[in-house]
Amino acid sequence: GVVQSNTKYGQESDNFQYFTHNGAEADGSPISVTPKDWPPPFLHHPDPLVPYIKYLMFFFNSILFTLGFGLLCIGFWGLAYKQSLISEKIGNLGTDPMLIFVLVGLVVCVLALSGCLGFIRENICLLRLFFAGISTLLVAQCVFALVVLCFQEQIQDSVKRTMMVAMSRYQDDSDLKFILDEIQLGMECCGVQSYQDWSINLYFNCSSPGVNSCGVPYSCCMDPLQNGTVPNSQCGFGALGMSEAMASTFIYLGGCIPQIVIWINRRIWDIAAGYFLVMAIELVCIVCAQRVMREIKVVKSLY
Question: Where are the transmembrane segments (predicted)?
């Protein structure tokens, strides 16, 4: 048919007239329509970045899902290996460190999967879930950063108390034993404030009748490995009953909290850069999700 405008060239109009091949309907009257009745290409210009955003976010969330699934597998493997899911031990599941891997992996998998399917299938419900989840994480990170800055002393005291409790359960919990040994080996430290803190453990206390009496874990030793491969569990025997000068010849005297504080202060800018990089990536994800959702809403309103 022929399209006839009631305005001059280059001017906009609220109404347009459509005619049949003979210029009018059967009764001779023209067809008058508004721009909303025009096909979508005349009303909406698609966002040229949306296709690139979709595939970029699909690729990013695929990697994120793989990492989350890996954490989930590690967590379940750890729980199964220690038989933490059996009825006799299920009551202590809440204090199992492996549960952290499971929970973090589950959250990452859900968010990444909703992002993958939401972007590639243009599913607005999944995109809203992804948007809400990432926004919540971003807000939580901002709050966490403010709490750390405002309550440094309280956090340090809380970490001290937690480490003291872990030290008292050193032989009773294999996970706590592993974590404490890794901290002491990595930081080259012993105890919380000093090596004398290990007297809180019943096995290492000098009042204990066992072979570990007045000793410290092998991870406190300067040379913790026997023949360079096997941990020497006896290298710290008797350290608590010696003078500091004598003990300093084969174990670290300084506590782990001061060493951790020194380590953080030396790398504070690297930590801050990494933290803000993660927040920037989350902000980009939020903007991308919002842009794709807006495009989906516009297209749906035209049909």
Answer: 55-79, 99-120, 126-151, 245-265, 271-293
Q: Which listed CATH number (2.160.20.80, 1.10.357.140, 3.30.750.24, 1.10.1450.10) goes with 154-264?
A: 1.10.1450.10
Convert the pLDDT of each residue in 284-301 to its tens digit.
999 999 999 988 888 777
The model's pTM is 0.71
Q: Which tokens belong to 65?
A: 């899902």
Quickly count: other Cβ atoms within 10 Å of residue 295's Cβ. 18
Among 4-13, 27-36, 142-151, 210-219, the range scoring the smallest mean pLDDT is 4-13
Out of 11-20, 165-174, 274-283, the most confident range is: 274-283
